[in-house]
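New to this. Please check this fold:
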Amino acid sequence: MPGDASQESLARGGLAATLQPANLPGSARDGRSKLRFVSFRVRLSVFFFLIVVLPMVAIAVLLVEVSERARDGKADAQLATGLTTALSVYEDDVARAKAQASRLVRSGDLGEALVGGDAARARQFARDAARRPEVEFVRVELPGGESIEEGSRQAIAVADVAVEGADGNARVSLSVTGPTEYVEEVRDRTGLDVAVLAGDRMLASTLSLDDAAALPEGGDSVELSAADDELRAAAVDLANPSGGRVVTLTPLESEGFFGSSPRVAAALGAFLLIALVAVWFLVRSLQGQVATMLYAARRIGEGDFTQKVPVVGRDEMAGLAAEFNKMSDRLAEQVDQLRRQRIELDRSIRRLGEAFAKGLDRDAVLRIVLETALTACEAQYGRIALADGTVVELPEIADGAARQAALGAESRARADRVQVEASDESGLHALAAPLRPLGGGDVVGTMTVARGPQPFGQHERDVFLYLIGQASASLENISTHERVTEQATTDELTGLANKRAFSEVLEREVARAERFGHELSLIMLDVDDFKLVNDTHGHLQGDEVLRAIGRILADEPREIDEPARYGGEEFVIALPETGLEGALELAERIRARIEIEAIPMLGADEVMYVSASFGVATLPTSARDEQELIAAADEALYAAKAAGKNRVAAAPPLEPGEDGAPRAKGQAGARRR
């Protein structure tokens, strides 16, 4: 029958059979419709919604409404009664105050004194009245407008008594009630907590309240919190010239749903019992298949793909079980493949990381890091940008959208100094993090990779951060090496090359000059009377002189020339591919600049001037090798010194000796330019 054929197709193909309804006969489609009507999803949804969700929602809404109304109604009734009592107490206090004021005014001839504007007697009256134990506050207003006050200004329930006279009226205002006394009396009568306020200022309260502004205005009732209690409060305005109000407070009972009404609780219990019974039968009918699939899913989550779900029957649950088993097999294959790839990738990355962490070629290290990051993260574009302006990009001709996404993430990482992952509207994803020294410090650069449309996974982020650490370590090693190399070859005081570095340069330039037949000149100079500078002005001033000459020697020669501090106050300059005349011209230019250089005096608003003597020798004119070149320049320097200092002297040319070898001819010629 067609219906059986449909069942058979569903058993063989699982859920795939339900995806092709158009190829089934009409009776098969009817059978499939009936099967869908009693499917697991429909049964579970209908039963759960009708038996559990709707009743529980209705009951919850009903109970919340009933409970809140009952609780609030009970609390409001208590608060209203308390406010009535508070007003009654207040009116009684006003009446007592008025009676007390009348008695005091009627005593003696005080009334005539008040009307007559006798300020002295009025002041004495106010002081005497305020000393009475039953009086809290007294104010006397004389006909002329003068006002005299004694006692606590926070007193409430103030009563006024007018004193009339022919020349005007006086007024006596008096209170026998303090705010603390008032709230205690109201609490004793009502059993409620009470607060009395003047505007937003708390005068007294039987309860510790953090925020007086949260209390209600007159005629209002609100809920508020104090300590661990939920309170309801109501307020009423007092007939007080200062605009005060009294607030009564009562805690809200936490009755819950079951405390509102026994009938509501019984109804809730009945609904819960019906829901539990229905759910029990539903779970009973489905728990076998669901438990088996749940167990298999948990095993898959733990990495075990051997657990299979039994395929029982021909319904949609059987089809789901079959598809579940197929999915488990495919996941097992993919996970195994990914596991092997990850092991190989981790090994490769760590080997590369250890290799380039020891390297000292900055550009090569950055390129290796970037290539490794692109491979490990399967990114399309990568970029490393250092703070000194160095930028490495791969590929060098990058996709514009990928590069733009990378630049955005790089900017955020540089600003926030944390790892960031950003995506843009085109679906591209970028991962960026700052490069910083391992021991902490300022950011030295950023590394960014970008791809689309797949976001970066946790493993890719971990690998990326590992490479960030390796790159930071490598850059730190390179910087340390460069710093040590510079310290080993640079004179600390002048910033020029030291004697050791100059010797290596001179040896290299002599060999090159001999190989290609070029001339090589050497200028040697010495500061005149430098010992006198140290003895007269101190060694710190002498250091300042040497620094000034070092700056001149760094500025005047060409880029290919090599100036250096040879020792003490003696300096040298190697001039590749330069003859004697060119060397003499440069020496004279440097001599003239030193002569006019104003050197600041330390600790004084003055300057000093120094001079220097120069000796110039040229290879092969004045010497045959490195040692003879240095000796010839040195002899020429001493000739300049002997001729009066502040001069330039040239070494004499060599002449053939008896053995046929050239030798120096005559003495060095010193000249003042």
In short: The radius of gyration is 51 Å. DSSP finds 16 helices and 24 strands in the chain. Residues 40-106 form the longest helix (67 residues).
